[in-house]
Design goal:
The structure is a single chain. The chain is an alpha/beta fold. It has 16 helices and 19 strands. Helix content is 36%, strand content 24%. The strands form 5 sheets. It has an 8-stranded mixed β-sheet, with helices on both faces. Helix 1 runs parallel beside helix 3, helix 5 packs across helix 8 and helix 10 packs across helix 16. The chain starts with 7 loop residues before the first strand and ends with a helix. The protein binds cytidine-5'-monophosphate (C5P). The site of cytidine-5'-monophosphate (C5P) has 15 residues, from helix 12 and strand 16.
């Protein structure tokens, strides 16, 4: 919470049914500590009233370029000078076309044109019918808006207010909030391609039973999110967990350790950083029964034998790219005691430059954690905090080591 403390966001609404989502978005931005100044076009006011937006933002809404409230009568200048970002959500097809041509015949378009282009970023969340979105003119406008320096968010896909199904819905308020938070994060890992493993693995005994562990995947998912916020291109290989994919992260779902290894091998040649947070099962049943193992009435449980799983991290760390410095490998150690000694030993055994220790029972399934970073230079303690906070600190620590090493 308070991810946006100190940020002043001008939230622009243009005409579209997605205006109803802008109410929720405004509330979400305010809850994260931002101050929000709403500016609406005439068309937006057909969909949602300025009264609603004023109540949610706790500020009078602006909609006219002739607004006499401003002493200098220049709302378009004053509003844009105060902003840390202008977020147009929803951005209609018509408004995007207007932006593109630098037209300025209402307060919102006038303000966008008048904004100091170097210091006040323009974030655009398109919302329209699928045919309008797919139309070559809209797609051309998206390309040109990006070339002109705007950040144009993706659209969602699914059922539309008109009853049609396809691309063009505005992202949900929670998704846009995540995008806005990410936008403001320092881009410490720009240019890096980060591969993360997360969650437990599941090793089948028979079609209905298996061996797994209590890893929730939360730390790995937080790291994937933090790396993406820091500007990296991120792929997340996830064991069986029930977590939402962080925005902008490519996700590959796997089940067993061997599935995870196969997925990692496909991704590794492109990666520059590999962060192995997954709690990979050390062993798997030597044989998986094709049918459910039944009680046979003898009172004797079935005898299970195990074989060792491949060590995904250790083999990545031994690759030529890792040895040449093209791939930076980070391992995790979940221990129950003697964290420092175990982490140091594991770092040596796995052959990784950086090993991150945490106390397993104190982190599995929790929303917070504490980390101990061990590398050739010594140790760094990251005291107990939320997993996203720690993930961001870890991303910064990795970025620092990358810039020193290269
Ligand atoms: O040996 P241990 O399981 O304690 O090592 C933990 C570290 O190694 C973690 O980074 C984990 O993701 C990784 N690992 C792996 N493949 C395995 C076992 C662990 O990548 N088979």
């Amino acid at each position: 919470m308070n991810e946006l403390a100190g940020k002043h966001i001008v939230l622009g609404l243009t005409g579209g049914i997605a205006c109803y989502k802008a109410a929720e978005l405004c509330r979400a931005l305010v809850k994260e500590g931002a101050t929000v100044q709403v500016v609406m076009t005439e068309a937006a006011a057909q969909f949602i009233t300025p009264v609603t937006m004023q109540a949610l933002s706790n500020r009078p809404v602006y909609h006219s370029q002739w607004d006499a409230r401003e002493p200098n009568n220049m709302a378009h200048i004053n509003l844009s000078r105060e902003a840390d970002a202008i977020l147009i959500a929803p951005a209609s097809a018509d408004f995007m076309a207007k932006l593109l041509h630098g037209r300025a015949d209402d307060l919102l378009s006038l303000m966008c044109l008048a904004r100091p282009i170097e210091t006040v970023p323009l974030l655009v969340a398109p919302a329209m019918n699928r045919e309008m979105w797919a139309h070559p003119s809209t797609q051309r406008n998206v390309v040109q808006l990006k070339a002109d320096g705007a950040v144009v968010f993706d659209v969602g896909s699914g059922e539309q207010a008109c009853g049609e199904v396809g691309d063009g819905r505005m992202l949900e308020p929670a998704e846009l909030l995540e995008e806005v938070i990410a936008f403001f994060r320092p881009k410490l890992l720009r240019g890096q391609r980060v591969l993360v493993t997360a969650g437990p693995t599941y090793e089948a005994i028979d079609p209905v039973r298996g061996i797994t562990n209590l890893s929730s995947g939360k730390m790995g998912f937080a790291i994937a999110r933090a790396a993406r916020e820091a500007g990296a291109d991120v792929t997340l290989v996830a064991g069986p967990v029930h977590l939402a994919t962080p925005r902008g992260v490519r996700r590959v779902d796997v089940r067993s350790a061997r599935d995870m290894q196969a997925a990692v091998q496909v991704q590794l040649p492109d990666a520059t950083v590999f962060i192995a947070t997954a709690a990979v099962a050390d062993w798997r049943p030597a044989n998986t029964a094709e049918q459910k193992i039944k009680k046979d009435g003898s009172g004797q449980p079935p005898a299970l034998s195990f074989v060792e799983n491949p060590d995904i991290l250790a083999s990545a760390a031994q690759s030529e790219r890792a040895k040449s410095g093209a791939l930076y490998c980070v391992g995790f150690a979940a221990e129950s005691h003697d964290l420092l000694a175990h982490a140091q030993a594991k770092r040596a055994r796995k052959g990784v430059p950086l090993l991150v220790g945490n106390i397993g029972p104190a982190t599995f399934g929790q929303d917070d954690n504490a980390l101990l970073l061990v590398d050739a230079q010594g140790t760094v303690e990251l005291p107990r905090a939320g997993k996203l906070t720690l993930a961001r600190q870890l991303a910064a620590e990795i970025a620092r080591r990358l810039s020193v090493g290269r």
